[in-house]
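Students often ask what a holo structure prediction actually looks like on paper. The answer is less mysterious than it sounds. You provide the chain, you provide the ligand, and the output is a string of discrete structure tokens encoding the 3D arrangement of the protein together with adenosine-5'-triphosphate.
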Amino acid sequence: MITGTGISKTFRQRGGVLGAREVPALRDVDFAVERGGAVSFIGESGSGKTTLGRIIAGLETHDAGEIVIDGVPMSSLSHRRRQPYFRRVQLIHQDPYSALNPTRTVHQALEAPLALRARQTGRPRSWIDSRAQELLSMVGIDPGYVLPRYPHQLSGGMRQRVVIARALTMDPEVLVADEAVSMIDVSLRLGILALLKDLRERVGVGVLFITHDIATARYIGDDGELYVLYRGQVVERGATEKIIADPVHPYTQSLLSAIPVLHGLERPGAERVVPKEPRGESQGEGRTGGCLFVPRCPFSTERCERETPVLGRDGGPDQETEQEHACFHPRRRSVIPVGVGE
Ligand SMILES: Nc1ncnc2c1ncn2[C@@H]1O[C@H](COP(=O)(O)OP(=O)(O)OP(=O)(O)O)[C@@H](O)[C@H]1O
Ligand SMILES: [Mg+2]
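The corresponding structure tokens follow.
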């Protein structure tokens, strides 16, 4: 089990006429991923998804909050002693080209981490080759074909499968898949998603799935949890199916309305939520206090301008919504014509 509590991160960005500015990438985020579980984070570009994935994998520091892996708070350990724990989390990058060293064969790419694993678990060196073959078969590729080959000799889909096999060499508890299919040919995406789903069952690995596409989040974790990130804040959280069927935060509603086809959920155009355009970036960022979504929300009131809604405290879970949200006016909405929402 891997949990995060109150994870916050602010980046300082240099430059511009205003000099350095602070960009809050994550605001007080809580999460939990279990073995075999599926947790999806969804949000638009810049919402903090990659930052969160990197923090969970130990590749980025955070300013506040605690990551607990297998019951051990990471803050209690020295940097060096954290490393074995963070190996329990393996990151799968969106670009399988850059994730693999072009000068090494697949055999070489798997051999190094497996040699480490063999040492850690007291296995003989002969185990390395058989395990490499086993892992490649597990991700659905022919070991005899790929082992002697270089990354450029493989298709994008195969490369991503090799990346997943390499992540599995460490027997991780959780795979963090950050837009793992976005750079793969559309025809091959479903195969990779099906593989991740299958690995949850077969190997018992948890998947933390990061995406801007709610349809893929739904596919990978229809039985799992969905977290909706908006500008670094989780604004809605609950069972994936529940949220997709019944989103209550206006931001989630707008994300869902952008899906062209989602079988069983399509509604006529007039029933979709289309929030207003932001009233201006500067106004949105410069405000202190108040709901972060106000600049784009067609339903905001004076209270939303003044007070900041907190996930779980100000919204749900209640009987009507079941999921938690950070909204003062959560509602099942069906008729929200563009521009007439107020
Ligand atoms: N190393 C960094 N230095 C400064 N700012 C950063 C850094 N990394 C991320 N940010 C900022 O933090 C915010 C969140 O970025 P992040 O990459 O986590 O978003 P994301 O949800 O993954 O976006 P995308 O969908 O485009 O991948 C953005 O405003 C980004 O500009
Ligand atoms: Mg990203």
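DSSP finds 13 helices and eleven strands in the chain.
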